[in-house]
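Shift notes (night). Ran HigA family addiction module antidote protein while the centrifuge was going.
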Amino acid sequence: MTRKPTHPGEIIKEEYMKTLRLTVTSLADRLGVSRKTLSTIVNERAAVTPDMALRLSRAFSTSPELWLNMQKSYDLWTAEHEDTGWTDVVPIQVTNVSAEEHAHR
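Came back to this:
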């Protein structure tokens, strides 16, 4: 993926808050979280957590997976484009472990 995925906070701000004319304070109250918590998400300084995904899904009649998948895509793209040395990791040849066995470890 070449284009950076949209942070879920931008979606909250642009597609929900602006459309529904909600302030950070009013939405935070509806979600049962602090204004600061919501503000850091909509200003793209914090991630949507599983708890927040549940709250957003309930408030906006969406699925929690929608919010978590957006966050995952954003986080993974960001990590792939940061020079943290992850590309220097030498692959380990794993031949005797099936995917099913690996999942149960």
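The chain has six helices and no strands. The longest helix spans residues 64-80.
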